[in-house]
Amino acid sequence: MRKSYKKRIVIDHKVHFGKPCVAGTRIPVEDVLELVQEGIPFKEIVQRYYPDLEIEDIKICLQYAVDIVRSEEVHLEVA
């Protein structure tokens, strides 16, 4: 069963120009994903960068990104 991120990721046009953020914070999903991309362990992300997050919030950010890519339409040009 997949975890729902709908209550943990919010989009508000008044916060970071409508970029998705972790609910209850002003932390953009994009910023969290960049730290994950750098190979920083989840625990370190919480301890050093975003003490307002829980490890579950980081996992939800990843799930959000996966769902965005999964729903993306790909159009291939045939030469």
Architecture (CATH level 2) name: Orthogonal Bundle
Strand order of the largest sheet: 1-2
Apparent shape: globular
Provide the succession of SSEs. Answer: EEHHH
- Backbone CA Rg: 14 Å
Task: Please sum up the structure shown.
The protein is mainly alpha-helical and 79 residues long.
Structure description:
The mean pLDDT is 90. This protein has 3 helices and 2 strands. Helix 1 (29-37) packs across helix 3. A two-stranded antiparallel sheet has the order 1-2. The chain has helices at residues 29-37, 42-49, 55-71, and strands at residues 9-10, 21-22. It has a single domain, classed as Arc Repressor Mutant, subunit A, CATH 1.10.10.10. It has 79 residues and is mainly alpha-helical. It is globular, with a radius of gyration of 14 Å.
Q: Topology, pairings included?
A:
Layout: E1 9-10, E2 21-22, H1 29-37, H2 42-49, H3 55-71
Antiparallel strand pairs: 1-2
Keywords:
79 residues; mainly alpha; Arc Repressor Mutant, subunit A; two-stranded antiparallel sheet; 3 helices; 2 strands; 5% strand
